[in-house]
Amino acid sequence: MRYTILTLFPALIRPWTEESILQRAIERGLISVDVRDIRDYAEGKHRVVDDTPYGGGAGMVMRVDVVVRAIEAALPADEVILLSPAGKPFNQRMAEELARKDHLVLVAGRYEGIDARIEHFITREVSIGDYVLMGGEVAALAILEATARLIPGVIKEAQSHQQDSFSTGLLDYPHYTRPPEFRGLGVPEILISGHHAKIAEWRRKQALKRTRERRPELLEVAELTPQDLAWLDEFDAGSE
């Protein structure tokens, strides 16, 4: 997988790729991350990338001609994604879809955003939440991490991401490790029983319980088995 990240602040992105799992994935050739400065595609002595908006208003707007030159220099690509609070919400299903692509171009805006004509030069707008950041760099990094970890070989445990929150449509079940007791708090006995079928059942029930308590709206679209529905009825009846 190739990633090209277009930003006015490359120094915000590059350190993220020089540590931990992303660094190892790059070194092994599983992914490549090309971070480009949009300012390099501006013309003139001062390389101006923004201007005042037509019609007036506070703030500055990034120029469409500069950003499009940066995008076109990165092509061909499977997707050109503009990170924007007006975009479609990013979720695990979108991450799985994007992880199957060969080349993603991620465009991180700044200031009051990019000239609206940019819509004609991208494939989609994506938002990571209903809030406004100072720029799209954090959103670009979120997409980078969420998709890169799904690429075969990036994560050591091949099935790890299949059990993550949202991958199954539910929140993840709770995890425990050493010490077996900490300040009076123990590990559920079932997890040290060695009974794998019972452990799997307990984990599924816990995932359902967590989801019902914390994100009940996910249950409306999750793929639930008859047994799942029976357990949910038990929870509602107070016999969990």
UniProtKB/TrEMBL annotation:
Keyword Transferase listed = yes
Superkingdom of origin organism: Bacteria
Q: Which GO terms describe its cellular component?
A: cytosol
Residues annotated for S-adenosyl-L-methionine binding in this entry: G109, I128, G129, D130, Y131, V132, L133
Question: Which keywords annotate this record?
Answer: Cytoplasm, Methyltransferase, S-adenosyl-L-methionine, Transferase, tRNA processing
Q: Which Pfam families match?
A: tRNA_m1G_MT
Gene Ontology process terms (BP): tRNA N1-guanine methylation
Q: Which reaction does it catalyse?
A: guanosine(37) in tRNA + S-adenosyl-L-methionine = N(1)-methylguanosine(37) in tRNA + S-adenosyl-L-homocysteine + H(+)
Its family? Belongs to the RNA methyltransferase TrmD family.
Q: How does it assemble?
A: Homodimer.
This protein is called tRNA (guanine-N(1)-)-methyltransferase
